[in-house]
Design brief:
Elements (H helix, E strand, L loop, with lengths): L10 E2 L4 E2 L2 E2 L6 E2 L9 E4 L4 E5 L4 E8 L6 E8 L7 E2 L6 E4 L8 E8 L4 E11 L6 E4 L2 E3 L3 E5 L4 E6 L7 E6 L2 E7 L2 E6 L8 E9 L2 E12 L6 E6 L6 E6 L9 E7 L6 E8 L7 E5 L7 E10 L2 E2 L5 E6 L8 H42 L6 E3 L8 E2 L7 E2 L15 E2 L9 E2 L5 E2 L1 E3 L12 E3 L10 E6 L2 H5 L1
Parallel strand pairs: 6-12, 15-21, 33-37
Antiparallel strand pairs: 1-4, 2-3, 5-7, 7-10, 8-9, 8-11, 11-12, 13-14, 13-16, 16-19, 17-18, 17-20, 20-21, 22-23, 23-26, 24-25, 24-27, 27-28, 27-29, 30-38, 31-32, 34-35, 36-37
Main location: membrane
Subcellular location: Membrane
GO molecular function: cell adhesion molecule binding
Length: 476
Amino acid sequence: MSVTRSDSYNRISCRATQNTTVSEFSNITKLNVLYGPREVVLSPNNSTTNLEEGQNLGPITCSADCNPTCTIQWKFNATVGDGRFVDQTTQNDELEIVNVRRSMAGVYRCLVRNKVGYNRKDVSLNVLFPPDRPTVRIGGQIVGERTEIRNESTSLKINCTTSSYPTSLLSIGRGTKELYNRTSNSISFNLRNVGCTDSGQYTCLAFNSKGRNKSVFDLQIQWKPLQVQSFSHADVDSTSVNLTWIPGFNGGAPQHFVISHDSPKTSEWIVVLNVSDSGQTQLISRLVQGLMPNRRYRFRIVSANRFGDTSQMPLYVEFTTKGLPESDPLVSGSMVGVAAGVSALIVVVIIGIVVFLAVKKLRKTEAEKGEKTRYGPTIRDASEQPRYGYDDDNMYANSPNSQNDNTLQVRYAAPSEPTKESTRTQNQDGLIYIDVDFEKPNESKMGRPVIHGDDSRTNYMQVDFTNNYTDSEAAE
């Protein structure tokens, strides 16, 4: 007899038969068929549930037909977990979650079992949320919103990752140009053999039905600058020229421009300007002065930064400066006359200075000799010299000793008594004088003009201020 769960609780009795003999029925026995849970029933019966963050899940009832009665247990396997199910706390075998969060997304399993067997049924919970801000990695290193500097000619792998549900459309772009995109929460893009043109602002953009987010970073490739554009000249004069140019890409570092011209005697270049770049791509103009008139020039410009320069591919401009204008004959003649006059004046001034210096030196020499003089300048013998007297009408006249027959009658000056105040005076040339006071004739006993400084004589002497009276002469 094959027993199924449908036979459960049936009443069973039996009797025996032998030939024509039949026994009575035995006592009635109740059949109890044991079976495990063949089917697990969830109510509501949704295999997948989509909720936004903050909404509630359940309650979800789990049941099954089994004999003996089954035990019911809920387990949870997080989407971002390690794949293992963990016990989920429930009440009355019902699953209910209030205020769901993205971390609650995953598979919820109702496990039913008894001593005969077990069964299960799963329900998936998807928590909807917009993409998080993407995480960017270059070469495995996380990149923030800062400038990333890399060397030229290398290869770079840019990885962009986000978290969202539903899955985002991720894209990587430079400036306004999209480089790569794919529907995934993680994408990668390779930059091979990078150069200066790969420098710029990069964007990792994540987008889904719940929102969008992005990360931005600057990538700077270290490289020598590009050459300038439109190098030209204008306003050529006899000694100057105006040069203009437009800066090229600076190679990811501050750049400057070196302007030089050819040398007429050697193969070297003579630097005349070194101009720093303001960082704005605009026309730059500079005036070069000090050029030679009527000469053919060749100018070149080189861009440079700390990584290199464009000296291998410079730009050139060539031009010839104008000659000097012809001079006006009248103006030239006037200029010649003025020049001659100025030259003559300079010669006269020089001669005057020489004479002045010579006289000054002579006087200085005489003054040095005068330092050894006891009585001052040389006084000649009175008998050999004319005498001078004093007359009321004619202050100066020849004395009676003069050879002039028309000698006036004069009164002679008298010397004064020597006093401490009667000191001789030495002037700036080292010459010494005696003082004759004609204003006070009555101070002497004879009523004559007073001679201050001569203690014994009454007559005037001829004083030779060009010779000094030395100690040796006094000894004689």
